[in-house]
Structures are given as structure tokens and as C-alpha cells.
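quick one, 223 residues, struct below
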Amino acid sequence: MNKETVLKAEDVAKTYHPGNVSVEAVQGISLSIEEGEHVSIVGPSGCGKSTLLYLLGALITPTSGRVIINGIPTENLKDRDLTGLRRKSIGFVFQQFNLIPTLTARANLGIATRLRGMAAGDEICRYLQLVGLEDKMDRRPNELSVGEQQRVSIARALVCNPAVILADEPTGSLDSKTSRGIMELLTKLNRENGRTLIIVTHNKKIAGMAGRVLHMLDGKIKG
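---
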């Protein structure tokens, strides 16, 4: 059975201009990612991995080329429509958890569902249970371990049922045991729930868990 393309980049480039310098972070990349794929993006620091991930998730705008999400070209969308497409289609997991410190785990997920116009009390509980935090739903981030905070951020990314999960170094600040638990959870969601999973990582073992590995160097995909 043919699978649908959920993300597509067509000759995408991103150039930054810090001061009087021009930095080509991503240079003319074209790729397609199908539903249910598990893809790792690897390469040395500064090679453009995170920039490519943010381009694919429409968090930043390409200097040239275009990104297509679920068949919808993003280049001419108004900000409101682009935000709506992003919220509907993509869940983001970052190395920095970006949790609201004054809110409980449950309330942090509640913010995500309200932004999407969802009344999802039961879903919030279900996803916190999924990441093993059923007994810590009403704790604030400073009452949780680093690994538990990352689990909250994963639950927040998933609660609105996105087709695609984009994760930028999701285990970068975690110890090896917690990292294994986080990756087991993400790969389970990919294999059993069919979520498309794209991970930027420096970790060779984590990269090797993917069905496809994209090697980046100097803003380009090599090999």
C-alpha cells in the first residue's frame, strides 16, 4: 500500500545574516517523508540539523524553496493559517522543555489543547498516563525530575494527536537510563501508533534506531 507524503521540502535553503556575515545554514535540500517513517538527522554541530527540522515544521521560513505539510504548500499561507496547520499536524519536542513553571503537568497540556480549540480533559489524563506520569499530573515542573519534565513535554506534543513528531535532541540533557526510556516511548509511538517521527540527534545509538538516517554536513544532506 502506498503511503502518503506528510512532509516535503523542495530545494529549501535558509541563510542568516548575523552582522555583516552571510551564513548558509541549509543549502538547497529536497526530501520527502512518508507517514509512519522514523527518520534521524545527524551531523556535526553547526551543520544545519536543527535549522532543517525547524524548516520542516514551519517554525521558520525558508530563504528559498518551499515546504509542504500534508499536501499543503506553506509559502503563501497567512500567519494565522500557518499556525493552525502547524498545531493540527505537528508535535514538537525540544531539548529545552519550555514548560510553564507555575502550572502543573496537567495544566501545561491544557494550554496546548486550548490553543487548538479542544476540550480534552480525558485526553490529557490519557497521555500523561502514557508517559508514566499518572501519579504526578498535579505537580509543577520544579517538583519533577528532568526526565519527568521531558515526558511532560512529549505528552504535550502528542495530546492533540499530530501526524508528525519533530524532536530536537530530545535526550540531550538526560542521563543514559532516562534517555533509553524516552526513546523507547517515542519508538513505540512510531511503531505501534504509526506516528511519523523525525529526530535530530548526536547520539549514534539513537540515530541507529531509525529506519532512515540523513547525514548532514555544511548545510547539505550527504549520501
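Strands lie at 5-16, 23-34, 38-42, 64-69, 72-73, 90-94, 164-168, 196-200, 212-217, 220-222.
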